[in-house]
Amino acid sequence: MTAERPTHKKCRQCGEWFNLSKRASLKQKFCCGSCAATYRTSDPKWRKAQSEKIKAQCDSEVMRERSRKAWDDPETRAYLTEKTRERANTKEHKAYMLEHNKKMWADPEFRAAQTESKRKRSVKQWEDPAFREKMSAVTTQTNKKRWADPEFKKRTGFRIKLALAQPLEKKRKSAESKERMNRPENRARASEQAKQQWENPEYRAFMSGVSHETAVKRWQDPVYRKQQIANLKKASQSPEHRARMSEQGKRLATDPVAIARRKAWWDAGGKAKQIEANKKRWADPEYKARVSKAISEAKRKPKP
Ligand SMILES: [Zn+2]
């Protein structure tokens, strides 16, 4: 009598008991081929090895061509997209992605890399005239729509006025946005958007009304006026301002467009106007005294 041969075994994959046929190997572990395959393919090590093996056997160019062809077929593409969507929309997958993203973004290196690549992408996009044009069109459309809505106009207009009326808040905000806007990725976009805003007649009319109103009101305040004049004086004497002005002067003196424009203005009666304006100014005794004094002082002072 031989040792008793088991008639049933438990499947390693599905856990069901199965009939072990008389001729089957005692080593059989699975109830069916499908369970065996599922067990095998769920092992990452096996999957990796299998993929390596196939890669070694295949011509990658051929494979690429094949998947490209499959993707070009609308039916296959629809099927694959649908499958991906199904997978991505499961509760489990969403929960997994949430966790995954949290983990990724907690890593400062990842965060820096993402920010940097986003920045680069943005810079590149805005360098493309076609993209810029497209975005301009979009912005123009949006602005027109918004400003045509009386509710938006009222609300936004009120906010703008309120913000302009609060110097401190404005200062803080402008320092903040200046810093932000000076980043190269934002500069092109901001200038484009501002341009688009100003091309909208509704916006232009509103803003010119607002700024003129505010400027006039403020200028009537003697403290503000004195402060502004002092600021201007100080700014005009700063080395930066002087350097900028001298740079600009040099540029305008040699720029052919500027030269042509000046000449055209001069020929079109600009010369006569200039002479007339000078005469008028020098006829004012206060102007004459002030400027003469400044000139003689400048002559006496040695150049720095
Ligand atoms: Zn099974």
- Give the overall silhouette: elongated
**Would you list the SSEs in sequence order as H and E?**
EEHHHHHHHHHHHHHHH
Q: Largest sheet at a glance?
A: 2 strands, antiparallel
The DSSP helix count reads 15
Rg estimate, integer Å: 38 Å
- What is the topology, as strand order, of the major beta sheet? 1-2
Can you count the beta strands?
2
Strand content: under 5%
Report the end-to-end length measured between terminal Cα atoms. 121 Å
Q: What are the bound molecules? A: zinc ion
Average pLDDT metric: 85
Structural class: mainly alpha
Oligomer: single chain
Compile the SSE list and pairings.
Blueprint: E1 8-10, E2 17-19, H1 33-41, H2 44-57, H3 60-72, H4 74-88, H5 91-106, H6 108-127, H7 129-148, H8 150-164, H9 167-181, H10 184-199, H11 201-219, H12 222-237, H13 239-254, H14 256-283, H15 285-300
Antiparallel strand pairs: 1-2
The site of zinc ion (ZN) has 8 residues, from loops.
3D structure, described in words:
- The chain has 304 residues and is mainly alpha-helical.
- Helices cover 82% and strands 2% of the residues.
- The chain is built from 15 helices and 2 strands.
- Strands 1-2 form a two-stranded antiparallel ribbon.
- The longest helix has 28 residues, at 256-283.
- 1% of the residues are buried.
- Bound molecules: zinc ion.
- Zinc ion binds at residues 11, 13-14, 16, 30-32, 35.
